Sequence to fold (113 residues):
Amino acid sequence: MIGVWYKEISVPQMGQITDILVNVATHKADVVFNEPSFVNGYMKANPNTLRLAQDTPFQVFPTSLAVEIHETQLRDMLDSALAELQNQGAIEKIISKYSTDPKVFLRVAKPYQ
Fold:
């Protein structure tokens, strides 16, 4: 039987996002899971300090907005407005304006395609 040894490193919640990336770059940690928008900026400013373990996402999480539990009308209005922005291409224009790498923010497939 092969034993597995690992040690968790804690970073304060109020710490900077770069703190966890520095832990990997300085070999205090072996791996970090984070979104490309943060990691790519760090790698650009600090070349040859980190490398991607794989080119495809490990896991994809949707973006969400929190509303009061009883605010169903607000939630429905936000969902409707976001769907309209998505269908009109406004969200694509905003993402394209701020991100040149298509892998940073994965696009939602249009329901009619």
Remarks:
- The chain has a mean pLDDT of 85.
- DSSP finds four helices and no strands in the chain.
- The helical segments are 17-25, 36-45, 72-88, 90-98.
- The first helix runs from residue 17 to 25.
